[in-house]
Design goal:
This protein has 759 residues and is of the alpha+beta class. The protein starts with a helix and ends in a 14-residue tail after the last helix. The longest helix is centred in the C-terminal third of the chain and has 15 residues, at 731-745. The chain has an 8-stranded mixed sheet with strand order 36-37-39-38-40-41-42-43, with helices on both faces. Strands 13, 14, 15, 18 and 19 form a 5-stranded antiparallel sheet that branches. Strands 1-2-3-4 form a 4-stranded antiparallel sheet, with no helix packed on it. Strand 21 (308-315) and strand 22 form a beta hairpin.
Length: 759
């Protein structure tokens, strides 16, 4: 080989831009640095309130816990006197708790995050290590007792499709009428009432059976005790999902488990409201033409005068939602409120109603004018008395309804043209829509806690890259009483923290702003190019890009491995206009990708270090569906995906979430959004992760994707985790995600982990 040719190769090598060192290899130390990032940042934000301030009942006094250098401190504030001081002697309390527990605690590192004042403020009660301690605040003497309170045993996604398997033929208890003269119960699937002062029994129904039973839990007495409403139920299909726990800790052999799990398209229980006149011992027929095909019917709520009761009807397919009133005298039904959108009524995110105590009005939330707002209904006429709120912004949540003063206290976002439309602000408005009062103005995401009498409030606000500020204000004129805390993030910055960057770009229509954040590694160098990884969750039930101060995120760990990590809210997610939201209708495969890709391209045009020729994506659950969907439906842009516990076919997942957005009946649009049906389109690299005991998303959803990929002769990677549910299994899963993106986005050799027991 001549010298001129060697010189040419050397020049070519030096002129070629590389995003990483040739033949680079990630080290175990690189992984440790990323996984220990939280420890590096923990405690580096000073004077930041942790958790919500806790107001005392009926007193203008509250306490809060804040970070200080080396730990935490509890502060007590008297709002009327503008006085702020330590809530107690931290050193003495630490000493007393150390003595009684034989552990070592310090004033800055107390073993609890909250407390309650007891004995008129003369002592406090704290709980930790399954023990409740009561400590006096004069002598700091502490006594402990066992904490016997029940802890919630709840897993996301289980409650909504779990059917309690009980004996429905009879009830062990009864429901007493308001006048105490009758007891109602179920016997042989039928409704029975018995006088409390005698042995007289009335069998109100005779048509109950195992497949047409009266539901004890729905029994509702009229206020005058003369009538009774109840649901008669025709059971639907009881679907079971089966599991094999391959590696139980308690035994060698595997275990079989099953649970009830209702899926889209399944035949549901049919509930028919039934009305009885107890005094006359007769049933009044209720015509079901207003509620012919229920997904769900909730409540049997009597008016105060006993002349009628209401229930709520959510029609299968979620394109009709009604509040129906039944006349107790003749059983005639009428719709007081009727929502019939062309797409979906978002009961999962936008359902709010408040029945006034006199039963004459209902405050109702609706997106009927294109934005989520409040309406005041007259129950007698079924007409809207007034639209309480209006404008191109959304009500996020009603916090409190004051019927005496006819005022509504609520959260809203999108009212300020110069602010992020997702920032939450706090307001009050009269029932008739007058006197809209604003409690928060600063440019940021707000969290407000009012005193029990609503005379004062604590407002804590921040942005994702701006430290929190907490202020005490008066409700009457929103004036500042005192600044409580302003967080100091200089130690966090000194530790290498890179502030998440907010970035806005136009969406697919060329007009709508799409919001996202950019996360960089601590050693970020603007002169280098970085592959990009998107973290996705595009569920239509909310928006997901963080809006409050973000000192740490799992995305930062991944960025530390030499990536730019981003998160975006595309069209189809919630808390913008109805049109923005409707993009998801029968179209979950969209997942806002047309907006996301334009957002990526806008960032790449703005920054040379943003290499959008190498884009990966990851997510779990609905994000697992979307991350694989990115490769299947947009292979020209997304190249690598790590998809965890995905609901890859909406026919396989829980009914409420999927029929809410994909509708009913099941049609070809379900197949169009299915990763299983479209698996043959795979071009990039994907790692599928599934837990064998996932009770939220049927694990078969992931296995069916794998089956389809095999049948299509596609290469992919698959990780089934024994004993795992829907949540992350922690460092092992995260390390596999690191490995996959390093190998396929950066062409980096990863460590041989079988030779590194320290990880």
């Amino acid at each position: 080989m001549n010298s001129n040719y060697l010189r040419f190769l050397l020049i070519l090598f030096l002129a070629t831009p590389f995003t990483h060192t040739l033949f680079a290899q990630a080290t175990v130390e690189d992984y440790k640095n990323a996984q220990e990032l939280w420890e590096k940042f923990d405690g580096k934000v000073i004077n930041n309130i942790t958790g919500n301030p806790e107001w005392l009942e009926d007193e203008p006094i509250f306490w809060y816990r804040k970070t200080i250098e080396g730990g935490h401190e509890f502060i007590r504030v008297n709002a009327e006197e503008s006085e702020k001081r330590p809530a107690f002697d931290h050193a003495r309390l630490a000493s007393s708790l150390s003595e009684i527990t034989e552990e070592s605690y310090t004033a800055k590192e107390l073993p609890f995050n909250s407390f309650e004042y007891k004995n008129n403020g003369q002592s406090i009660e704290v709980s930790f290590d399954d023990t409740i301690f009561t400590c006096t605040l004069d002598q700091y003497e502490c006594e402990g007792r066992e904490d016997t309170s029940e802890r919630p045993n709840w897993q996301w996604g289980v409650w909504d499709h779990e059917r309690e398997e009980v004996d429905l033929s009879a009830s062990d208890s009864s429901i007493t009428s308001p006048n105490k003269k009758w007891e109602a119960y179920i016997q042989n699937y039928n409704l029975v009432v018995k006088r409390t002062d005698s042995d007289e029994v009335l069998h109100l129904s005779q048509d109950g059976s195992e497949n047409n039973y009266y539901n004890f839990n729905s029994i509702s007495w009229s206020p005058d005790s003369e009538k009774l409403a109840v649901y008669r139920v025709i059971p639907g299909y009881v679907r079971k999902v089966h599991y094999v726990e391959s590696s139980p800790e308690s035994q060698l052999q595997p275990k079989h488990l099953s649970r009830t799990y209702v899926k889209p398209g399944d035949v549901l229980d049919k509930e028919q409201p039934v009305l009885f006149n107890v005094e006359q011992g007769k049933q009044l027929h209720i015509d079901s033409s207003l509620f012919p095909n229920a997904f769900s019917q909730t409540g049997l709520r009597w008016r105060e005068d006993g002349e009628a009761f209401t229930f709520e009807y959510n029609e299968r397919g979620h394109q009709r939602y009604r509040i129906i009133e039944v006349d107790a005298g003749n059983g005639e039904a009428r719709a007081i409120i009727n929502e019939e959108p062309e797409t979906f009524f978002s009961y999962a995110t936008s359902l709010f109603r408040h029945y006034t105590e006199d039963g004459e009005e209902i405050i109702w939330m609706s997106e009927r004018d294109g934005w989520r707002h409040l309406y005041l209904y007259d129950t007698a006429t079924g007409e809207v008395k007034t639209q309480i709120t209006e404008g191109e912004w959304v009500v996020r949540e009603v916090e409190y309804v004051d019927e005496e003063n006819r005022q509504i206290w609520f959260q809203a976002s999108g009212m300020d043209e110069d602010q992020d439309p997702y920032y939450i602000h706090y307001f009050r408005v009269n029932f008739d829509g007058s006197n809209l009062t604003r409690f928060t103005k600063a440019n940021g995401n707000h969290d407000v806690v009012f005193s029990s009498d609503r005379e004062y409030y604590v407002d804590t606000w921040s942005q994702v890259d701006k430290a929190p500020i907490s202020e005490l204000r008066k409700t009457s004129d929103q004036s500042l009483v005192m600044k409580l805390e302003e967080a100091d993030i200089s130690p966090l910055v000194e530790a290498g923290w890179q502030a998440p960057e907010q970035f806005v770009a136009k969406g697919r229509d060329g007009e709508t702003d799409i919001y996202g954040i950019i996360i960089k590694p601590t050693a970020f160098d603007p002169n280098k190019e970085y592959p990009v990884i998107e973290y996705i969750y595009a569920g239509p039930h909310d928006n997901f890009v963080p809006k409050s101060f973000l000192p740490f995120s799992h995305m930062m760990r991944l960025a530390e491995m030499g990536f730019i990590v981003v998160q975006i809210d595309g069209m189809g997610t919630s808390n913008r206009s109805k049109a923005f939201h409707d993009v998801a209708w029968r179209n979950l495969k969209d997942a806002g990708f047309p907006d996301r890709i334009l957002w990526h391209e806008a960032v790449a045009e703005e920054y040379s270090w943003y290499d959008n020729s190498k884009v990966g994506i990851y997510g779990r659950s609905a994000g697992g569906q979307s991350s694989l969907g990115a490769l299947l439906f947009h292979p020209e842009y997304y190249h690598v995906a790590v998809s965890s516990v995905g609901c890859h076919d909406n026919r396989m997942d829980k009914i409420w979430w999927n029929e809410q957005w994909m509708g009913w009946p099941i049609g070809p649009h379900y197949a169009a959004s299915s990763n299983v049906e479209n698996a043959h389109k795979l071009q990039g690299n994907v790692l599928l992760i599934v837990g064998e005991l996932d009770t939220n998303v049927d694990p078969s959803s992931t296995y069916q994707v794998a089956d389809a990929l095999i049948k299509a002769n596609k290469d992919f990677d698959f990780l089934a985790i024994p004993g795992a549910g829907h949540g992350s299994v922690g460092e092992y899963e995260e390390r596999k995600r690191f490995d996959y993106f390093l190998q396929h986005l950066k062409d980096v050799d990863t460590p041989n982990w079988n030779q590194h027991s320290e990880m």
